[in-house]
Amino acid sequence: MIAKLTGRLDESAEDWAVIDVNGVGYLVFCSARTLSSLGSVGDTVSVFTQMQVSENDMRLLGFAAGEERDWFRLLTGVQGVGSKVALAILSALSTAELREACARVDAATVARANGVGPKLAARIVNELKDKAGAMPGVAGGLGGVAVSALVGGASADAVSALENLGFKPGVAAQAVARALDELGDGAQEGELIRVALKKAAG
After folding, report:
1. What domains can be seen in the chain, in order of their start residue?
2. Among the residues of 48-164, which ranges form H helices?
3. What is the pTM of this model?
4. pLDDT tens per residue across span 51-68
5. 43 burial via Cβ count (<10 Å: 0-12, 13-18, 19+)
6. 79, burial (CB in 10 Å: exposed 0-12, middle 13-18, buried 19+)
7. How would you class 51 by CB atoms within 10 Å of its CB: exposed for 0-12, middle for 13-18, buried for 19 or more?
8. Residues contacting 135, CB < 8 A, separation 6+
9. Most distant CA pair in the chain, distance
């Protein structure tokens, strides 16, 4: 299975790009956020990928970050959410916003995405609230750390590092939140990762 592509951006449109890898052009469907991050035609780009195969279709999805691909997998695991709807959600919301919406069971935020009605949005947040990690800073959270504390800086880098090591997005976020609560807001990325790994493993 193709997990990642690195090549030259050959062309792009509203929801897809063609990436030329050693003379082979891969058609990759992407969210608007990923497309905007790829740069200009002719630039060297790299995307994480997910292959989807159905009876009538086979398509390659591309993501600027592994975290976005993880969220795509979570979203498409919800009944009624196909690849197009998942990409629409990831176009409308950053992964941090989506994580917070699920943690707060905030269907209205998810419903901002094109093609997502109130009922589907409610199903998404209800099914993913635990998988996304009952986020810190809300009921059932850990240590009173605000969700926003994980959005940027060393905390976000630490969450990404844990995800790259194979931890689910929600597990990684919870572990970093607990580490941040223990170490304080000024903690450095390396220390956060070290402590968060212990929390996640425990």
Report:
1. 4-63 (2.40.50.140), 66-128 (1.10.150.20), 147-201 (1.10.8)
2. 66-76, 83-92, 95-103, 107-110, 118-128, 153-164
3. 0.65
4. 988 778 889 999 998 888
5. exposed
6. exposed
7. exposed
8. 99, 100, 102, 103, 104, 141, 147, 170, 173, 174, 177
9. 52
* Rounded Cα–Cα distance for residues 108 and 154 (Å): 29
**What type of residue is 202?**
G
The better pLDDT of the pair 18, 94 is held by 18
Residue 25's CB: how many other CB atoms inside 10 A? Answer: 14
Contact (CB, 8 A) for 192 and 154: yes
Q: Identify the top-confidence range among 18-27, 151-160, 192-201.
A: 18-27
Output b/e per residue, 142-152; b: 16+ Cβ within 10 A: beebebebbbe
Identity of the residue numbered 80: G
Does residue 66 sit in helix, strand or coil?
Answer: helix
Q: Which of 92, 98, 18 is nearest to 62 (CA)?
A: 18
Residue 193's H or E segment, with its range, is helix 189-201
Tokens 């003379």 map to which residue? 23
Which one-letter amino acid corresponds to residue 141? G
